């Protein structure tokens, strides 16, 4: 079954569903047997994030399983992007951002003072919300990572080809590798960004709403791609599209934001984390149920 | 509201009625448009006028001196017999001082731009950028004096032990470069700051460090703006007068050795225009021929820069 035929509702956000729509059934793709507890590649323990005085994320505890796709879902502003950006220290680049708690990668705290953020990012790659290819040729976009990190590859051409094949883009671009990446469509650009990321052979790939600027066909390409990539990579994806989470992810973490009584600031927190099929068919928290059935914006 | 009355009065006294969309053309806007149009035409007219004023006497000059002698002759001796009107020494003087200037200005200007755009904290940038631009406001006669009084005797002779003449192309070129640094730094910084942050993030997220991101992503993305900044710097160097008139010397000298004094095109014009020249004489007309050549060179350089700036919009 293709991803587009599967769901009862239109692809889109929670707003597309009527108030008492039936709970979504998880799709074929993630009905594989999972260990009850993920074998963690990465782990957050009591993760708290602050932007200056603003407490953005409160006490998040998560384990990201090897060769699994973990989806982070929840309403806008609940801190999904913030949590994701903590996982490869991209928040280091935000002035005023502060991370407390522990983020472990294969058991080692990536915020340890001896850890080099650049080394972290070489192992934990990231695909952004909006495709952001470099103003370079398609080839040079993919070759960029291996070149700057001094990766030892036998043959850069075939390495680039391999990454483009893995990103399901090779056939569309093989005749125009020397052309600017800006000539590609949005969906192709996003797959190029995925190719660029996997060209450095990371261990974990973070994706922040990678389909939010794409049309449904390009979206389904990327979703198929994610499921393929799961065989080799551990994938963590932020999405506000619940059907997407249901279609591609193995486990789902549902976040929400709780206003502070005194300041009114909305601090994000993790409500529930479980196998995707459980989250979508039998959530244990009322807020999760309300959100995925569309009773909560 | 209290502000409604004046707004209505501006749109015209003859009230067209509440349902009519007809309105008189706003007279204030017409006046403004007219003034702006006049301003635009005046600046074009002045440019055309300058060219015409240059071309007339220059044509007279070229009736007496063949264009090829002027462009390719290697001796410039307009005031003593036997007179020779080969402009190459002046062109070379201009090129040598500008070259030295660019050797100073490009690395420092681009370094400053990279620092300001990619490394400096917003606070540092807020302080440093205006200071840098202040350098551009120093009158060039001050720079020229500085070259004569400090660069030549102290920096070059005493500290670096370079044997240079009292006037020399090296000292003039160095301060020329210092004068051009703010131009290159400021325009290049603008071009680099205009590069979307998403590109930097994409690079850093792949494990590139900041220097790699700056050199391999930001710099190429901003390259047409940076090139335009450099071209503008060159044209400022070519056109700069006071520094070279003071510090480079007044001896036409076709030599690659920048330790020697040289006269530039602008330097020649500045020196000669101040002297006594019989209107219509050949030496009077040389001013216009050299002026026209200078004008053409700067025009070509500026045209290159316009094309480069236009291309910047196509990059991302
Ligand atoms: N760079 C930042 N500086 C200050 N506040 C931020 C920054 N980025 C995000 N925030 C705030 O943190 C909260 C969580 O944001 P984000 O992680 O982007 O949420 P989500 O991705 O779930 O929509 C929001 O209230 C947002 O306004
Ligand atoms: Mg987000």
Strand content of chain A: 15-25%
| Percent range of helical residues of chain A | 25-40%
CATH superfamily of chain A: P-loop containing nucleotide triphosphate hydrolases
What integer is the average pLDDT of chain B?
Answer: 88
How many H/I helices of chain B? 13
The total domain count of chain B is: 1
CATH homology superfamily of chain B? MetI-like
CATH level-two architecture of chain B: Orthogonal Bundle
Strand order of the largest sheet of chain A: 5-4-1-2-10-9-3-8-7-6
- Helix fraction of chain B, binned, reads over 70%
Poorly predicted regions of chain A = 1-28
End-to-end separation of chain A in angstroms reads 29 Å
State the end-to-end distance of chain B: 46 Å
> Numbering strands along the chain, what is their spatial order in the largest sheet of chain B?
1-2
**How would you describe the oligomerization state of the chains in this entry?**
heterodimer
Highest CATH level, the class of chain A = Alpha Beta
Keywords, please?
heterodimer; A: 297 residues; alpha/beta; Rossmann fold; 10-stranded mixed sheet; B: 316 residues; mainly alpha; MetI-like fold; two-stranded antiparallel sheet; 13 helices; disordered N terminus; binds adenosine-5'-diphosphate; binds magnesium ion
């Amino acid at each position: 079954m293709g991803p587009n035929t599967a769901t009862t509702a239109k692809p889109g956000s929670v707003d597309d569903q009527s108030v008492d729509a039936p709970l979504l059934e998880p799709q074929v793709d993630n009905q594989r047997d999972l260990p009850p507890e993920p074998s963690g590649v990465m782990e957050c323990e009591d993760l708290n994030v602050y932007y200056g005085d603003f407490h953005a994320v409160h006490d998040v505890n998560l384990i990201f399983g090897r060769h699994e796709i973990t989806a982070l879902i929840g309403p806008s502003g609940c801190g999904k992007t913030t949590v994701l950006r903590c996982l490869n220290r991209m928040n280091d680049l935000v002035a005023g951002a502060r991370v407390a708690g522990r983020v472990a990668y294969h058991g080692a705290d990536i915020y340890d003072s001896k850890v080099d953020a650049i080394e972290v990012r070489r192992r934990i790659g990231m695909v952004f919300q909006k495709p952001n290819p470099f103003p370079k040729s398609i080839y040079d976009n993919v070759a960029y990572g291996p070149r700057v990190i001094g990766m030892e590859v036998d043959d850069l051409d075939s390495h680039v080809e391999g990454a483009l094949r893995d990103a399901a883009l090779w056939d569309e671009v093989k005749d125009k590798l020397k052309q600017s990446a800006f000539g590609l469509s949005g969906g192709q650009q996003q797959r190029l960004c995925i190719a660029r990321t996997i060209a450095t052979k990371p261990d974990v790939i973070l994706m922040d709403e990678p389909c939010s600027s794409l049309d449904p066909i390009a979206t389904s390409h990327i979703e198929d791609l994610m499921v393929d990539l799961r065989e080799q990579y551990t994938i963590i994806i932020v999405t506000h599209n619940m059907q997407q989470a249901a279609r591609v992810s193995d486990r789902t973490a549902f976040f929400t934001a709780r206003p502070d009584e005194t300041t009114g600031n909305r601090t994000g927190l993790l409500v529930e984390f479980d196998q995707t099929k459980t989250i979508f068919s039998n959530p244990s928290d009322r807020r999760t149920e309300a959100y995925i059935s569309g009773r909560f914006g | 509201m209290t502000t409604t009355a004046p707004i209505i009065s501006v749109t015209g006294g003859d009230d067209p009625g509440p349902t009519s969309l007809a309105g008189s053309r706003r007279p204030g806007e017409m006046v403004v448009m007219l003034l702006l149009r006049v301003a635009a035409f005046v600046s074009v007219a002045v440019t055309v006028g300058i060219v015409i004023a240059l071309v007339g006497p220059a044509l007279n000059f070229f009736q007496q001196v063949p264009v090829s002698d002027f462009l390719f002759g290697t001796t410039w001796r307009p005031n003593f017999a036997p007179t020779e009107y080969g402009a190459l020494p002046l062109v070379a003087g201009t090129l040598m001082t500008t070259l030295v200037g660019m050797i100073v200005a490009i690395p420092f200007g681009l370094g400053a731009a990279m620092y300001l755009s990619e490394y400096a904290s917003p606070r540092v940038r807020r302080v440093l950028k205006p200071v840098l631009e202040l350098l551009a406001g120093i009158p060039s006669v001050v720079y020229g004096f500085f070259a004569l009084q400090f660069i030549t005797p102290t920096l070059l002779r005493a500290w670096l032990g370079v044997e240079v003449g009292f006037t020399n192309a090296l000292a003039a070129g160095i301060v020329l470069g210092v004068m051009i640094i703010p131009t290159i730094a400021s325009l290049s910084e603008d071009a680099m700051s205009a590069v979307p942050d998403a590109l930097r993030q994409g690079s850093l997220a792949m494990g590139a460090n900041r220097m790699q991101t700056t050199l391999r992503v930001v710099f190429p993305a901003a390259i047409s703006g940076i090139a335009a900044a450099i071209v503008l710097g060159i044209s400022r160097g070519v056109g700069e007068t006071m520094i070279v008139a003071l510090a480079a010397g007044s001896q036409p000298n076709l030599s690659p050795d920048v330790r020697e004094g040289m006269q530039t095109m602008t330097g020649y014009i500045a020196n000669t225009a101040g002297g006594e020249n019989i209107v219509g004489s050949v030496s009077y007309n040389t001013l216009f021929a050299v002026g026209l050549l200078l004008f053409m060179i700067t025009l070509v350089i500026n045209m290159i820069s316009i094309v480069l700036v236009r291309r910047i919009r196509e990059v991302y």
